[in-house]
Amino acid sequence: MTPPQVEPSAQQLELLSLIVCAVAKFHHLSPEEAKDFTLYVETHLVEGRYHVFSRYTGRSSLRTYLTVVVERMLLDWRRAR
Hints:
Layout: H1 10-26, H2 31-47, H3 51-54, H4 62-80
């Protein structure tokens, strides 16, 4: 079943971008790796129709939730490489 289309706000997308950069920096990714990882995250979210935003239930801050999502995506990206 296809996840519902969720249109994240500009603020949510900006927060996501900051988190992706912070995660890449925290894990000491090279500039090339950071660029590849950012592209991976963007592609995954677009293909998934931004389902991560529809799954957010408010049990934590959006920043915390997205950080966990991006950290797990980093693990998937590393395994795939």
